Hints:
The structure holds 2 protein chains of 2 kinds.
Chain A: H1 6-9, E1 12-23, H2 30-45, E2 54-58, H3 66-71, E3 80-84, H4 90-104, E4 109-116, H5 126-129, H6 142-157, H7 161-175, H8 189-193, E5 197-199, E6 202-203, E7 212-221, H9 222-228, E8 236-245, H10 254-269, E9 279-281, H11 287-296, H12 305-310, E10 321-322, H13 327-330, H14 338-350, E11 364-371, E12 375-382
Parallel strand pairs in A: 2-3, 2-4, 9-10, 9-11
Antiparallel strand pairs in A: 1-7, 1-8, 4-7, 5-6, 8-12, 11-12
Helix pairs in contact in A: 4-14, 7-11, 10-11
Chain B: E1 8-11, E2 14-22, E3 28-29, E4 47-53, E5 56-64, E6 74-81, E7 86-91, E8 101-108, E9 114-120
Parallel strand pairs in B: 7-9
Antiparallel strand pairs in B: 1-2, 2-3, 2-4, 5-6, 5-8, 6-7, 8-9
Bound molecules: zinc ion.
Zinc ion (ZN) binds near residues 22, 25, 27, 37 and 40 of chain B.
Amino acid sequence: MAAKNILNDRPAYVVGIGLHRYQHATETSYVTLGLTAVRAALADAAVDWPSVETAYVGNARIGMAAGSTMLRYLGPSDVAVAQVENASASGSTAFRQSVHDVASGVADVSIAIGVDKPVAGAGRGGPINANVPTLDHGLIVPFSHFAMLAERYMADTGATVEQIAKVAVKNHGNGARNPFAQRQKVRTLEDVLAPPQISGALTRLQCTPVGEGAAAVIVASEDALKKLGIDRDRAIRVAASASRLQEFTPDENADAALTRKTTFEALEAASMSPRDLDIIELHDAFSIEELLYAEAMGLCGTGEAAARLERGEYDIGGKHAISPSGGLLAMGHPIGPTGVGQVCEIVRQLRNEAGDRQHPQAKVGLAHMVGVGAVCVVHVLKR
Amino acid sequence: MSDREDLWIEKGSEIFLRGVRCTNCGSILFPPQPYGCEACGADGGSLEDFEFSSQGTLHSFTTVYVHPKIETPYQVAEVRTEARQYVRARLDHPDPKVGEAVIGCLQIIDDDDAQFVFVPTSQAGG
Ligand SMILES: [Zn+2]
């Protein structure tokens, strides 16, 4: 799609970020989780709730009307609310809606929220309700899909089990410096390779923890910056937004093809190339994904990612900092919040406010999520 | 998910898979569905039943050690069949390697009905 990038004509800025720590499921209501993030984002932007004109609430597990129910507790406002569900990319898609509201002039201030937790009685999803039969008898689960990708990657590139595990060593190290991360422990290669084995090369510490949490970002127009007196130095511009549905690709790895196409659509819209990217937050639900997506995004050639990661090119302070938040592997993957949380991390990095996990001279960041469907959503932000 | 005997058929000594073929673009799709062609967008009326050999090569495989309902460990495979379709199912292979020839057969798993399982081609018929 070579559509015109409306973000060139009417800029949209992220002006506030807020999080509730990602964590194992607790008795805490999703309302408490979500409002913690929303109030933090409003405070960070120094914007009051009645100034927010539209709100998108991304989640996939807490059911109908969760977003509207939660936002009533913020008091009177004229806000237009919608809940957004797009599997693991729900939060990313909520953000895209907010960005487009601002870029199109529908709203001057919009909030994108991700909030989620496991709840009893959640319905079966589309892939099951579509009633398309499978041969696998329920044997194939997400981690076995990615374990098969790992096996294939090793056969194609000669990468080793240890090299794949080093993705997790890096991201656990980053998560250890992130107070909002679910996993905040430094792990050695030996720790990461230790049992329990989950599937194939993947051990427990190479699989994302799915718990609960919340994230929120406030998106504002140029007019809103002036009218509300928002600090321009802390406003981070959204350069591009892209979203794609998986296509039938019988001769190519479908996951890699989807990421490649979506990333290049976003980079083209932003008039950038992969080498411009300082910060990349990507969907590393399983360690192998970081290597596959780094290659699909064009950060390096096919089959090179494992060696480059080993040399430190993807560390904070390296050529591109991949998942400085800890990524899904360490920060966690509460589903709805994850894509919004990626934007929070990129904004923090581009503002130079990331403390001891700051990547030096960060000017451009890219957020990438994939979700069941499959869908892929990519945003590029710049300072 | 229940056993899907309608996804395969015994033909002589070989197990064939039952997918659909798009009469508009010729793509072979598996698993079968009545909704439309993912390759070209033709509607479900353009999809006709199509049986194809389960012989193929191991595109990938893994051993699964953790599952909430199924006894572990077990192996699964993604196989590229001769009809250029990727098919995923249980694997029973002592030493699998990417690229190896495999074929479908029927095995009784856990006293259940017959399940479709990929095995090394050299071992088929045993
Ligand atoms: Zn077709």
